[in-house]
Amino acid sequence: MTAHPFHRLPGKKSKEEADKAAIELAALEKITVQLEAGKGARSAKLTDEEDKEVRGLGLLTYKPLIYAANVSETDLGNQGADNAYVQVGGDLCLQDMQGSRVMSLVHVLSEV
How far apart are CA 31 and CA 33, in angstroms? Predict the structure, then answer.
Protein backbone atom coordinates (compact mmCIF):
# COMPACT_ATOMS: atom_id res chain seq x y z
CA MET A 1 0.00 0.00 0.00
CA THR A 2 1.22 3.50 -0.76
CA ALA A 3 1.89 6.02 1.96
CA HIS A 4 -1.10 8.00 3.15
CA PRO A 5 -1.18 11.58 1.73
CA PHE A 6 -1.15 13.02 5.27
CA HIS A 7 2.41 11.81 5.67
CA ARG A 8 3.52 13.96 2.73
CA LEU A 9 2.46 17.22 4.36
CA PRO A 10 5.42 19.40 5.39
CA GLY A 11 6.11 20.31 8.98
CA LYS A 12 5.63 18.64 12.33
CA LYS A 13 2.37 17.04 13.30
CA SER A 14 0.77 17.44 16.68
CA LYS A 15 0.01 14.31 18.68
CA GLU A 16 -3.69 14.77 17.90
CA GLU A 17 -3.02 15.08 14.15
CA ALA A 18 -0.77 12.04 14.23
CA ASP A 19 -3.41 10.01 16.10
CA LYS A 20 -6.12 11.03 13.61
CA ALA A 21 -3.82 10.14 10.72
CA ALA A 22 -3.14 6.71 12.23
CA ILE A 23 -6.87 6.06 12.66
CA GLU A 24 -7.59 7.19 9.09
CA LEU A 25 -4.76 5.03 7.74
CA ALA A 26 -6.10 1.98 9.60
CA ALA A 27 -9.55 2.63 8.15
CA LEU A 28 -8.19 3.06 4.63
CA GLU A 29 -6.28 -0.20 4.92
CA LYS A 30 -9.52 -2.01 5.85
CA ILE A 31 -11.34 -0.29 2.98
CA THR A 32 -8.58 -1.20 0.53
CA VAL A 33 -9.00 -4.89 1.39
CA GLN A 34 -12.71 -4.65 0.57
CA LEU A 35 -12.13 -2.74 -2.67
CA GLU A 36 -9.51 -5.24 -3.83
CA ALA A 37 -12.06 -8.02 -3.15
CA GLY A 38 -14.52 -6.26 -5.45
CA LYS A 39 -16.75 -5.02 -2.64
CA GLY A 40 -17.77 -1.51 -1.67
CA ALA A 41 -15.98 0.50 0.98
CA ARG A 42 -19.16 0.37 3.10
CA SER A 43 -18.55 -3.35 3.67
CA ALA A 44 -15.41 -2.62 5.70
CA LYS A 45 -15.94 -3.16 9.43
CA LEU A 46 -14.79 0.14 10.89
CA THR A 47 -14.79 1.43 14.43
CA ASP A 48 -16.73 4.61 15.21
CA GLU A 49 -13.46 6.59 15.24
CA GLU A 50 -12.41 5.18 11.87
CA ASP A 51 -15.85 5.90 10.42
CA LYS A 52 -15.59 9.52 11.61
CA GLU A 53 -12.19 9.97 9.95
CA VAL A 54 -13.17 8.59 6.52
CA ARG A 55 -16.67 10.13 6.23
CA GLY A 56 -15.21 13.37 4.92
CA LEU A 57 -13.35 11.66 2.09
CA GLY A 58 -16.55 11.29 0.06
CA LEU A 59 -15.83 7.75 -1.11
CA LEU A 60 -18.68 6.77 -3.45
CA THR A 61 -18.71 3.13 -2.39
CA TYR A 62 -18.91 4.19 1.27
CA LYS A 63 -22.19 6.03 0.77
CA PRO A 64 -25.47 4.26 1.56
CA LEU A 65 -27.39 2.71 -1.33
CA ILE A 66 -31.06 2.49 -2.09
CA TYR A 67 -32.15 -0.50 -4.11
CA ALA A 68 -35.35 0.56 -5.86
CA ALA A 69 -37.68 -1.60 -7.95
CA ASN A 70 -40.53 -0.17 -9.98
CA VAL A 71 -43.35 -2.66 -9.40
CA SER A 72 -47.01 -2.92 -10.33
CA GLU A 73 -49.67 -1.85 -7.86
CA THR A 74 -50.52 -5.51 -7.19
CA ASP A 75 -46.88 -6.25 -6.32
CA LEU A 76 -46.82 -3.29 -3.96
CA GLY A 77 -49.57 -4.88 -1.85
CA ASN A 78 -47.22 -7.64 -0.69
CA GLN A 79 -44.06 -5.50 -0.76
CA GLY A 80 -42.99 -7.12 -4.04
CA ALA A 81 -42.68 -10.62 -2.56
CA ASP A 82 -43.79 -12.15 -5.88
CA ASN A 83 -41.57 -9.90 -8.02
CA ALA A 84 -38.23 -11.41 -9.09
CA TYR A 85 -36.57 -8.00 -9.40
CA VAL A 86 -37.54 -7.02 -5.88
CA GLN A 87 -36.12 -10.33 -4.65
CA VAL A 88 -32.81 -9.68 -6.44
CA GLY A 89 -32.66 -6.18 -4.95
CA GLY A 90 -33.39 -7.60 -1.51
CA ASP A 91 -30.64 -10.20 -1.90
CA LEU A 92 -28.16 -7.51 -2.95
CA CYS A 93 -29.18 -5.35 -0.02
CA LEU A 94 -28.73 -8.24 2.43
CA GLN A 95 -25.22 -8.83 1.07
CA ASP A 96 -24.41 -5.13 1.33
CA MET A 97 -26.43 -4.29 4.47
CA GLN A 98 -24.53 -1.35 5.91
CA GLY A 99 -26.59 1.71 5.12
CA SER A 100 -28.62 0.09 2.33
CA ARG A 101 -32.38 -0.01 1.96
CA VAL A 102 -34.83 -1.74 -0.38
CA MET A 103 -37.76 0.26 -1.71
CA SER A 104 -40.71 -0.84 -3.84
CA LEU A 105 -42.09 1.98 -5.95
CA VAL A 106 -45.12 2.32 -8.18
CA HIS A 107 -45.17 4.90 -10.94
CA VAL A 108 -48.68 5.46 -12.16
CA LEU A 109 -49.09 7.25 -15.50
CA SER A 110 -52.25 9.23 -15.81
CA GLU A 111 -54.14 9.42 -19.05
CA VAL A 112 -55.21 12.83 -20.18
Answer: 5
